[in-house]
Design goal:
There is one protein chain. The chain starts with 11 loop residues before the first helix and ends in a 26-residue tail after the last helix. The radius of gyration is 27 Å and the shape is globular. The chain has 839 residues and is an alpha/beta fold. 32% of the residues lie in helices and 17% in strands. The chain binds beta-D-glucopyranose (BGC). Beta-D-glucopyranose binds next to loops.
Length: 839
């Protein structure tokens, strides 16, 4: 008698041979939001997955609950944008390793992080979860984070693959991107991470990319990701991103999350039985999934699982919040003297610090240090007035008058006003985009009154993305903490009072208004997102367009000054090395972020003026000098040639620029490339003409650049892929939306009438999140992510009814599936997973 096949003892081939067709389909989906199906009969355990990226969001409840109140406390680290502002990828590695240690304690196998989408526009509600507008920065930080997490035995899921640069249309939208921009900007960070750090999984995005949903995109998931870049892990969907389960398997997307959509399993089983899906395709997907499960099981056996060092993680969060803060402006008022009299502090964010962004990355921290706590801990003498309320657009005259009176006193006595401002969770969150970059009206109005009162005002900002800086020319200083995690208050105080010297720099350009952003011509206007700016994203646009920015990419001040000297550039084989000296010529020790850009030659093919190719951060004591070595591969200078579908390194006179920001070039050196390659433009003349400089608006030649017509906006009738909010003429959409939103509005009203408390704020925030996000969901995304509350057949039935197919619609609503070709295997869930965790 042969021994029974058991996971742990059997090989993957033996397990494959022992699995039934149903079990294979089950293995490739979640049983709820945070676990994959186990196959207890063969001892195959489920995988535990959780968000990411700013800590471990271990939700206590299953069934898809997103509530932060229901998750276990874990360190709330600075958000990704803050980490990137350190310009020190080692910090991302350390955070990754720390989060992984927390994952180990909670039994998490896969961390749903990092997010490495390009910040295409400052309005994207989720920019705080991303690193930069620049692919080198995004890739370097993403790689370091993956190495940190995976080095501790926890798998990562690099997300959201690809071109997911807005939230309002993420479930249905089509990112229309030309091949070159895709390769040079939107895929490049993913490529670096896959090649350098070997993430165990990749999460595909919700959106379409050039007409095909990413979950069904074979060229993306197989052609590019696996065949070109050598990815050998598992691709999973974003939560509810499955459209056509069979097509997605064929495309190379193995895992359907959060799963529990019976029709998706049935689709797989039916397709295999009917010969529409090759059994090999299914087996290959199962094989990859089993490898991931084996890897997780092996990691559980080795390595530490004891309690992590909470104090050390809190210290790390504080250290990185400090390193990632950016001093945007300073007329010399900062640092403040901690003993000075007459300090007035205004703004609710002083005591209710916004330290993280809304949505799936919410963390419940075990503790928190607000700026107020940190001021009090230092015994600072200040007068606090609240000035405005967050989570409302209403001004409060009483609060404003109090603040203005305090500011007048400060003005009269030479005191300083510290204004704590920024965005709240109603304004910036996963799930929706901003429509402008302004701070809330209550803050802008109050700030104006404080400035008018004649006080010297320092603005301390908490926001995950650029904002318009009101009265910028009248402010004495602006310190940007971004979203700094649970110890942000400590970082704020340390920087304001000069215990630490600011060393962060921006990894995104700050335009003066949304109209000046590089994607302004077509951002957030409809389901068809025309990436008409092509490669000209962020500083690549502003440099050549001469945009009058509020703050350029790479900008950040210090309390000291640095001089750059003595640049030497060498080419050894395929590598370019640059070496220079940075001298601290100011009064305090500090760290400087040195950026190396390369100016492109003016050849036939359009290029950005300059592109970041390397960066480094160096600590320099006052009066001393340090040598900084930076380097990059010559191949990095290549552009993507759309005729050859390959990278081409063009000969010509390049120039190495060493800079303190994209707008502050300190040293230059020539760099000649002479490898025998002179390129001809692969584009029609109209493209060459329109794209010789960054286009304003959408050039007529955009279709030529794409090589196909620009798709038209889809009709607004209700289909499976229409945003419910766009199908307002459909009675069914209105009923469905009304039913969900009605309940949420009632909850919102109930919360509004509660006395002020953190609980009230939490309820208001979650109501707002649903109210803003629901209209952008489609029937399909609702069904796929509802954990069975809106079964797919009901959603399909509603869509059929809306398309005037009553018979098909009613059949579906009654639970009969159209076009079934084989007996239904799913009711037999004998071997199906239990709802109980298997370990
Ligand atoms: C987000 C992902 C996240 C997932 C699970 C999705 O809505 O886009 O980033 O990992 O939910 O929470």
């Amino acid at each position: 008698m042969t021994a029974p096949v058991r996971f742990g003892d059997a090989t993957i081939d033996e397990l494959l041979a022992a699995l039934t067709l149903d079990e294979k389909a089950l293995l490739l989906e979640g049983v709820d939001s945070w676990r994959t199906n186990a196959i207890p009969r063969l001892g195959i355990p489920s995988l535990v997955l959780t968000d990411g990226p700013h800590g471990v969001r271990m939700v206590r409840d299953d069934g898809g609950a997103f509530g932060v109140g229901d998750s276990r406390p874990s360190t709330s680290f600075p958000t990704s944008v803050t980490v990137a502002h350190t310009w020190d990828p080692e910090q991302a590695r350390r955070i990754g390793a720390a989060i992984a240690r927390e994952c180990r304690e909670f039994g998490v196998d896969v961390l749903l992080a990092p997010g490495v989408n390009i910040m295409r526009d400052p309005r994207c509600g989720r920019n705080f979860e991303y690193f930069s507008e620049d692919p080198l920065v995004s890739g370097a930080f993403g790689s370091a984070f993956v190495r940190g997490v995976q080095g501790e035995g926890v798998a990562t899921s690099v997300k959201h693959f690809a071109a997911n640069s807005n939230e309002d249309y993420r479930f249905v939208g089509d990112s229309v991107v030309d091949e070159r921009a895709l390769r040079e900007i939107y895929l490049r960070a993913f490529e670096r991470i896959v090649r350098e750090a070997g993430p165990a999984t990749v999460m595909c995005a919700y959106n379409r990319l050039n007409g095909t949903f990413c979950s069904d995109h074979r060229e993306l998931l197989t052609g590019i990701l696996r065949e070109e870049w050598g990815f050998d892990g598992v691709v999973m969907t974003d939560w509810g991103a499955t459209h056509d389960r069979v097509a997605s398997l064929e495309a190379g997307c193995e895992l359907d999350m959060p799963g529990e959509v019976a029709l998706n399993r049935i689709a797989i089983v039916d397709a295999v039985r009917a010969g529409r899906l090759a059994p090999d395709v299914l087996d290959e997907a199962v094989r990859r999934m089993l490898r991931l499960i084996e890897r997780a099981a092996a990691a559980r056996e080795t390595g530490s699982t004891g309690p992590f060092d909470r104090a050390a993680h809190a210290d790390l969060a504080r250290e990185i919040a400090t390193d990632g803060a950016v001093l945007l402006a300073n007329d010399g008022i900062l640092p403040l003297d901690p003993g000075a009299a007459g300090l007035v502090v205004v703004g609710e964010l002083f005591e209710k610090m916004r330290f993280q962004g809304g949505g799936s990355s919410l963390i419940l921290p075990p503790e928190m240090v607000t700026p107020r706590d940190a001021f009090d801990g230092r015994g600072i003498d200040y007068r606090y007035t609240r000035g405005y309320r967050t989570l409302t657009s209403e001004r409060d005259e009483t609060l404003e008058q109090e603040a203005v009176a305090a500011a007048r006193t400060a003005a009269a006595t030479g005191g300083t006003v510290l204004f704590f401002g920024g965005l709240d969770d109603f304004e910036e969150s996963e799930g929706f985009d901003r429509v402008h970059l302004r701070l809330g009206e209550p803050q802008v109005a109050l700030l104006g009154r404080l400035v008018d009162a004649g006080a010297r005002v320092v603005l301390v900002l908490f926001a995950g993305a650029p904002v318009e800086v009101p009265f910028a020319d009248e402010l004495a200083a602006v310190l940007d903490l971004a979203l700094p995690g649970m110890h942000g208050g400590e970082a704020t105080a340390a920087l304001l009072f000069g215990e630490a010297n600011p060393s962060g720099k921006l990894t995104e350009s700050w335009p003066r208004t949304a109209a000046h952003a590089s994607a302004a011509a077509d951002y957030g206007r409809g389901a068809i997102a025309r990436y008409a700016e092509s490669i000209y994203v962020g500083y690549r646009f502003h440099d050549a367009a001469g945009t009058d920015l509020r703050f350029p990419f790479g900008h950040g001040l210090s309390y000291t000054d640095f001089a750059y000297r003595d640049l030497e550039v060498r080419v050894d084989g395929d590598r370019v090395s640059a070496s220079l000296e940075v001298a601290n010529v100011g009064e305090r020790g500090g760290a400087e972020v040195v950026q190396l850009y390369v100016r492109n030659p003016r050849g036939e093919v359009f290029m950005a003026d300059k592109e970041l190719r390397a960066f480094g951060k160096v600590q320099v004591p006052t009066g001393e000098t340090r040598r900084v070595e930076l380097g990059f591969e010559l191949a990095e200078l290549a552009y993507w040639d759309v005729a050859e579908h390959d990278w081409v390194l063009e000969d010509g006179d390049y120039e190495v620029l060493v800079a303190a920001s994209a707008a502050d070039i300190r040293l230059t050196a020539p760099l000649t490339v002479d490898r025998g390659r002179r390129s001809r433009s692969p584009y029609p003349a109209a493209v060459d003409a329109d794209y010789a400089a960054p286009p304003h608006g959408i050039p007529a030649s955009f279709a030529l650049l794409l090589g196909r017509p620009v798709p038209a906006e889809p009709p607004s009738r209700l289909t499976m892929e229409t945003r419910l909010g766009d199908a307002r003429r459909s009675i069914l959409a209105r009923i469905l939306l009304g039913a969900v939103l009605g309940r949420v509005r009632r909850a919102q009203r109930a919360a509004q009438s509660m006395p002020e408390s953190p609980r009230r704020d939490a309820q208001l925030k979650s109501a707002h999140f649903v109210l803003r996000m629901m209209p952008s969901m489609s029937l399909r995304s609702l069904a796929m992510s509802s954990g069975g509350r809106l079964p797919l057949h009901l959603a399909l039935g509603i869509a059929e009814l809306a398309s005037w197919h009553p018979i098909r619609g009613i059949r579906l609503l009654m639970g009969r599936r159209a076009g079934r070709t084989a007996p239904d295997p799913t009711p037999d869930r004998t071997h199906a997973p239990t709802k109980e965790p298997v370990r």
